[in-house]
Each structure stands twice: as C-alpha cells, then as structure tokens.
Here is the input.
Amino acid sequence: MQESDLTFTFPPDWIVRKFDATAAYRSVSGHGLKGVDFLCLVGADEIYLVEVKNFYRRGKRQLAVRRDPQALADHVGRKFADTRRLVAIVLRAMQRRWYVRMLLRYYSLHRRPRPGSHYWFWAEAARRLAVPSHVYCVLWLETPEGGEHYETATANGLRQWLQEGNRLIIAERGRTGGLPIRVRAAT
Here is the structure.
C-alpha cells in the first residue's frame, strides 16, 4: 500500500484498510474530521492507527519544510482522536439498518475474523478502540537523521491527545519501533 511516496508492506495476518480509501470514510469525510492513513487489526484484540509523515520531497531525498514539533503533534493527535470518532460514527450509521444489526450480532456470536466484510471490519475496529490498552497510535515519521530532539518533542506533544492506556510508537525506515512493517520509497 502506498502513502506519502512510501510503499508499506504489512504482515499477511494483519487486516489493513487504507482509511481514506474506504467508502465508509468517504461517506463521513468533509465534516471537519480527519482520519489516519491506515487502520490495522492485529491478532484478536489490538488495533493500530498509523499516520505517515514523510519530510522528504516526493521522488527526491531533499528535505521538505516540516512543522514545529508541537504543531505536528497537534495535527497528528487530532487525526488519532478524529479516527476514534469516525469509527464510532460509521458503526452508528451501519446499525441504522436492521439487517446490518442482525449481521453484526451474528458476527459477535461467532467470533472469527471476516476480513472481507466491511461491516465486520468497522464493528471490530470499534470494539477494539473501546479498550484503550488495545490501541497503538503509530506515527511513521520519515525525517532526516539527527531528529531525535524533534521526535522526542513530537512524542511529548502527542501524548496529550492519547487516551489513558494507549501506546505510542514513533517509527521510520531503519528504526521500526518493533513493528513488523516493511517500508521502502515508492518508485
């Protein structure tokens, strides 16, 4: 999957949606809410909200102008918060239809992954987001070397946006923060 001039390869057992490419997101976008780049369901209970920021110009290894750490933290933090709201909105909209409510009830009784079902995906994302310790907020931050102070300041600013129990990971190529995600520059 491509985002911000990078190609992401997720583990095959992860269920991943490019958030802004989903019909559900497009149906609620334009109301002042922004979502993260990727929503990833991992294992039985974890969810990863992945936002990508690449401070290299498209197609070049030149630097792009980057925001100060607090401005970046506020921008990305709002996306984490808005994503939680958007998932809840999508779930409420789906539940307005009686047959979707019945289908979701069936899925909850027969708990097994159904990666092909959009209804299952959104209901499962909402279930996982309801438990803050199951939520990983990931900022994939491609920035030039020597940005340790920048990353630390950004992380400190981001923490105010997270729910108690959420985990924050800041990663980049070559320093993945323990994530099994492979990333390369898009060709």
User: Anything to note?
Assistant: The chain is about 35% helix and 20% strand. Helices lie at 23-28, 69-94, 98-109, 118-129, 148-159. The CA atoms of residues 45 and 128 lie 6 Å apart.
